[in-house]
């Protein structure tokens, strides 16, 4: 077997149990490298690495002052140098097979939610990359999801400052149709690939909250 991440031959015994347990091969050293969490204080809400342990970091307080918060934010992988590299390869060198690697780290109780909703990518980005990096991981993990959000985000918003993004119009909208209108009273999970400032997710939530779900949590594969 060849490791999907480092492309080296996996030397462990390929006995039947490990063959079936594993969806796709990832060698043990890569598995360890990618599951590493840096030590240090963490924000209790968004899991950002901070100087000292605190309930909410300045970013979370900034967001709370401007948006309605999600119930909780779950983060699957720390944004270490290695994870950064993984996402770079996955998103920018279009190594789509890495969706299988990221999917292995999804440890979330999806069954507790009525609907998982990935953050959408714009039509231009879709054309350029060929896939929505978030929904592709959900597909690899065999997690059902609904594409009820869309975006007309033309510019790379990440290049705008925090304040500029706050005053810019919300780039997300809910697609017409039954799925979006049936969110009332439901437990929804918004899924994003990398949580940086958190503004993207909070803008998406702003649209979702208009449909009055019972609860909305966030799952992010990694946290920058
Ligand atoms: Zn490997
Ligand atoms: Zn925080």
TrEMBL record:
Q: Which Gene3D superfamilies match?
A: 3.40.50.2020
User: Superkingdom of this entry's organism?
Assistant: Bacteria
Q: Where do the coiled-coil regions begin and end?
A: none
Q: Give the Phosphoribosyltransferase domain ranges.
A: 137-210
Q: Which SUPFAM superfamilies match?
A: Multiheme cytochromes, PRTase-like
Q: Which named protein is this?
A: Phosphoribosyltransferase domain-containing protein
- Which InterPro entries does its entry note? ComF/GntX_DNA_util-trans, Multihaem_cyt_sf, PRTase-like, PRTase_dom
Q: What family is this?
A: Belongs to the ComF/GntX family.
Native source organism of the sequence: Salinicoccus sediminis
